[in-house]
Design goal:
Layout (H helix, E strand, L loop, with lengths): L1 H9 L4 E5 L18 H4 L2 H4 L2 H6 L1 H16 L5 H11 L3 E6 L5 H5 L4 E3 L2 E8 L5 E3 H4 L2 H6 L13 E5 L8 H13 L2 E5 L10 H8 L3 E6 L11 E4 L2 H15 L1
Parallel strand pairs: 1-2, 1-7, 2-3, 7-8, 8-9
Antiparallel strand pairs: 4-5, 4-6
The structure holds 2'-O-acetyl adenosine-5-diphosphoribose (OAD) and zinc ion.
The site of zinc ion has 8 residues, from loops.
């Protein structure tokens, strides 16, 4: 199975990766739906919706500050690094992620499409203001405050620049992801339950346009029935083995 996956990738013309929370599990970032998943402790409808934010912005901000703090301490793992290496080898053309944790960027992936936003990015609820807290140097200050964060330009409430339930995905990211999926001859799907749309269309588009699907997951997912190769294995271990095989082929 690993051999087959390695061959598909090494011979690919335009390979892409599509990732979900499972790729960051080994970095200590909780997944959403798995055992001990985030949504078991916090009901998403209470926290990750525009309605929840209107009703109780303090609670929503408390949750996001907690997640930001947890995520900023997390480090990319072998799987994130392997994807960055595959890109520098010229095999992988892009990583499309549903994750907001920034670990692909930390690992060095250059062409990254974030379908659900980025937890370190905040935006104004009224004007066009946006801020990437890792670059503006205000992350510490932001996490230390317990009051509601205000827009430096207009004074309105700031919000996390992530996609909440019931909200559309950022149009340019989604269009770019669809365009890449149509072009791809191989998609490496890692650590996603494949049940959240429109993101879950990505591997389906690759398949429908004649490409192949390699899936890495510790469990079967919504993608497994259409996967050409399914590696039932934690992401870090699978990617390490896969990289060794690929390097032996090229
Ligand atoms: P889920 O939590 O739904 O799924 C995580 C997947 O990772 C599951 O299929 C697990 O079996 C798998 N997994 C867990 N540990 C793994 C490991 N070490 N190696 C490989 N696989 C592992 O997360 P997503 O599919 O990313 O959306 O969820 C999709 C979206 O739903 C999220 O982006 C988020 C959520 O609601 C928004 O916030 C808009
Ligand atoms: Zn503003």
């Amino acid at each position: 199975m690993i051999e087959e996956a390695a061959k598909l990738l090494a011979r690919s013309r335009f390979a892409i990766a599509f990732t979900g929370a499972g790729i960051s599990a080994e970095s200590g970032v909780p997944t959403f739906r798995g055992f001990n998943g985030l949504w078991k402790k916090h009901r998403p409808e209470e926290l990750a919706t525009p309605e929840a934010f209107r009703k109780d912005p303090y609670l929503v901000w408390e949750f996001y500050r907690w997640r930001m703090d947890l995520i900023r301490k997390a480090k990319p793992n072998r799987a994130h690094y392997a994807l960055a290496e595959l890109e520098s080898m010229g095999i992988l053309k892009a990583v499309i992620t549903q994750n907001v944790d920034d670990l692909h960027r930390e690992a060095g992936t250059g062409n990254l499409i974030e379908l659900h936003g980025n937890i370190f990015q905040v935006k104004c609820t009224s004007c066009g203001y946006g801020e990437y807290l890792k670059e503006s140097g205000r992350l510490e200050e932001f996490l230390a405050q317990s009051n509601l964060p205000q827009c430096p330009d207009c004074g309105s409430l700031l919000r996390p620049d992530v996609v909440w339930f019931g909200e559309p995905l950022p149009r340019s990211a989604l269009n770019e992801a669809f365009r890449l999926a149509e072009r791809a001859d191989v998609v490496l799907v890692i650590g996603t339950s494949g049940v959240v749309y429109p993101a879950a269309y990505i591997p389906q588009i690759v398949k429908e346009t004649g490409g192949r699907i390699i899936e890495i997951n510790t469990e079967e997912s919504g993608i497994t029935p259409i996967a050409d190769v399914f590696l039932r294995c934690p992401a870090g271990e699978a990617m390490e083995k896969l990289m060794t095989r690929i390097k032996g082929l090229i």
